Amino acid sequence: MASELPLTEQSAKLNPAIAFVIALCAWIVPGLGHLLTGRRGRAAVLFIVTAGLTLVGFAMRGEVFTPRSGDTFGTLGFLADAGAGVFYFLARSLATAGPDLARATGDYGSRFFAAAGIVNLLGVLDAYRIARARRG
Amino acid sequence: MFRTGIHMSHFAAMALFALLVSVALASLGRHTFQERLKYAVWTFLLFLIVGVGIAWLMYPLSR
After folding, report:
1. Which H or E element spans position A18?
2. What is the ipTM of this complex?
């Protein structure tokens, strides 16, 4: 029943552009897309997990890739990292000490950053799917 | 902040990674609490078992 759906979800069925906006919101702030479609639990989990992975990656002094990394691996790393939305930009602005790649922990930190982005990108796809369909 | 970075063992880092990713995958892939819990525990254990298994397979190459 359309009347049982959250208002935003009903609107998205009428206008696909709203689903795109929800996906964009989901990318910028992890969990926001699910919050807008009424999935509060999933939104909280996505936010906490993405924030947790980013924080651990930051604490381990992993590498935050930039758009101009110079090689294919760096570009792929940037695409994965940037998936974390606001947490990517926070990590970039706060990681002033640079990566500690001389130790294995720093390399693990880079993987945590990438995982945060990939998890959030999965969340973006899920939020978009929910916004375009009735059930999630 | 974190200028020197935190240090943890390989296994601790893998377990923390497995825990966070398992919870996220369970939340996205399953609908009820029971299904999510079962999926998260199962995925977490598989992460650890496969990770330790691959480590043992690679052990002869490190010598």
Report:
1. helix A16-28
2. 0.85
